Amino acid sequence: MQKPQTYPLEHVGLLIIGDEILLGRRQDKHIPRAVEYFAGIDVDISWIYILGDDFDLLVEHFTALRQRGDDCFCFGGIGATPDDLTRQAVARACGVEVVRHPEAVRLIEHQFGEEAYPNRILMAELPQGAELIPNAYNNIPGFSCGSIHCLPGFPEMAWPMLEWVVKHRYETAENPHNVIVSLTVVGARESELIGLLSRGQKRFTEVKFSSLPRFPQQGVWQIELGLRGTREQVEAARSYLLAEIAAAGFEVFG
Question: Which terminus of the chain, N or C, has fewer Cβ atoms within 10 Å?
């Protein structure tokens, strides 16, 4: 059997759906796990949205995602209750009908027997042409429509499913090659470092520069600078910044 075609994954977005998150009835657990997981495979998280159970708003976002072509993992809203609107919103954004997916029907019937009807079977109603994402927890699948991957809101179900999608749909780094280095500049305000940071970014285009001011400690400003890239690139950029910062008369650690 021929292996399905896979695609490089360098950037990803997260879409977390549910009024319960916005109303504080449930605390999100996906973002911290996603930050750790995707950093471990050298994939950058480009954006994170948290949306309520608003059909028009969901359609608007899914339509924009399809137009942009972003790879997106969506958590929540694929259940059978009236407030679960993800399946319908994705279908509307894709311009297709919601239909009962034969394999999803088979899986749900196999898992629940007669108790699949009349309600659980509704979770087999997916956008026409959707591809299933297996769910080892209870056999109720998630689904993919192009680069939009829709998963349950429950982490114990969603994360094995997400890892399955990454393994079967994408190419990622087995051994992450990016490193992160921090430098702490003492006695400087952020505005005083903009020039040398801009010059550094132009010189080391493959390195990501970041700057995070800290409130004054005993009246002294501190700025935490971050560098992310391959070890060789980061070391070169670090040496450059150390020299530039010293020449500007500021103390630096790291």
Answer: N
pLDDT given for residue 96 in this prediction: 98
> Residue 4: its pLDDT value, please?
64
Structural domain boundaries, residue 200:
178-253
Question: Quick one: CA torsion of 153, 155, 159, 161, rounded to 10 degrees?
Answer: -50
d(CA 87, CA 252): 52
CA nearest to 85, candidates 108, 57, 116:
57
Are 142 and 109 within one domain? yes
Same domain, 158 and 200: no
Q: Comparing C-alpha atoms, which of 49, 47, 96, 102 is closest to residue 77?
A: 49
Neighbours of 179 (CB within 10 A): 14
Q: Who contacts 90 (Cβ-Cβ below 8 Å, separation ≥6)?
A: 62, 127, 130, 145, 148, 150
Q: Name the DSSP class of 2.
A: P
Contact yes or no for 15/73 (Cβ under 8 A): yes
The pLDDT value recorded for residue 175 is 56
Q: What per-residue confidence (pLDDT) applies to 173?
A: 67
- Position 2 in a domain: no
Residue spans of the chain under pLDDT 70: 1-4, 173-176
Please give the pLDDT value at position 176: 61
Domain check: are 162 and 72 in the same one? yes
Tokens in use for 27? 């605390």
- pLDDT (0 to 100) of residue 216: 74
